[in-house]
């Protein structure tokens, strides 16, 4: 099982403003920067309830028929994801990965601040693709939080785009 993160951040490392808005990200994701190719490679998207609720405010369901797993210990109204293939799970990151592997998933895309941080702390993320947007917002929800130990990364590639987006890919090595 491969667990990947593909996320956009402000240059100062925030994935959203303190109120959850990410209006500083380019509309529609900006110019093509590998997201479509990445999303085509995943079997399931794992997001937390907060991210799910935020995605619902964006209009049309952005994930098409891709399997989406919403993590929450409380009931979630999945019917709000009109046209989506959405299910709810609860448990530790290791339990979630095991449940999804048992259903044939081989590549998971983990998204949302708390969810990314929990999967990183559990040592389950193998690949990070971080796209930095050329803006400083000063405060917000950080991509990274406290970790029980250092996480060593190997740089794979960095690509820059005409709009100023800079996307870096890393593999977790230890």
- Count all strands and give the number: 10
Query: Low-confidence parts, pLDDT < 50 over ≥5 residues?
Result: none
Find the structural class using helix and strand composition: alpha/beta
Largest sheet: 8 strands, mixed
Sheet with most strands: strand arrangement = 5-4-3-6-1-7-10-9
Q: How do the helices and strands follow one another from N- to C-terminus? A: EEHEHEEHEHEEEE
Helix content: 10-25%
**The CATH architecture:** 3-Layer(aba) Sandwich
| Beta-strand proportion | 25-35%
Provide the CATH topology.
Answer: Dihydrofolate Reductase, subunit A
Would you state the CATH class?
Alpha Beta
Summarize the structure in words.
The protein contains four helices and ten strands; from the N terminus they run E-E-H-E-H-E-E-H-E-H-E-E-E-E. The protein has 174 residues and is α/β, with parallel strands linked by helices. The protein has one domain: Dihydrofolate Reductase, subunit A. Strands 5-4-3-6-1-7-10-9 form an eight-stranded mixed sheet. Strand 9 and strand 10 form a beta hairpin. The protein starts with a strand and ends with a strand.
Outline of the structure:
With 174 residues, this protein is an alpha/beta fold. It has helices at 35-40, 49-56, 93-102, 113-121; strands at residues 2-10, 14-16, 44-48, 67-71, 85-89, 107-111, 127-133, 141-142, 153-160, 166-172. The chain has a single domain, classed as Dihydrofolate Reductase, subunit A.
């Amino acid at each position: 099982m491969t667990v990947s993160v593909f996320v956009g951040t402000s240059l100062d490392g925030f994935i959203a403003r303190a109120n959850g808005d990410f209006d500083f990200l380019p509309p529609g994701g900006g110019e093509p920067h590998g997201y479509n190719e990445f999303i085509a490679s995943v079997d399931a998207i794992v997001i937390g309830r907060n991210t799910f609720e935020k995605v619902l405010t964006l209009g049309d369901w952005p994930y098409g028929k891709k399997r989406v797993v919403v993590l929450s210990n409380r009931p979630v109204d999945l019917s709000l994801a009109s046209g989506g293939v959405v299910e709810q799970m609860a448990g530790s990151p290791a339990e979630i990965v095991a449940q999804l592997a048992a259903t044939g998933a081989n590549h998971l895309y983990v998204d949302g601040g708390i969810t990314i941080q929990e999967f990183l702390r559990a040592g389950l993320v193998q690949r990070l693709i971080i796209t930095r947007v050329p803006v400083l917002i000063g405060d917000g929800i950080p991509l990274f939080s406290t970790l029980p130990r250092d996480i060593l990364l190997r740089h794979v590639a960095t690509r820059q785009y005409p709009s100023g987006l800079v996307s870096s890919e890393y593999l977790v090595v230890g």
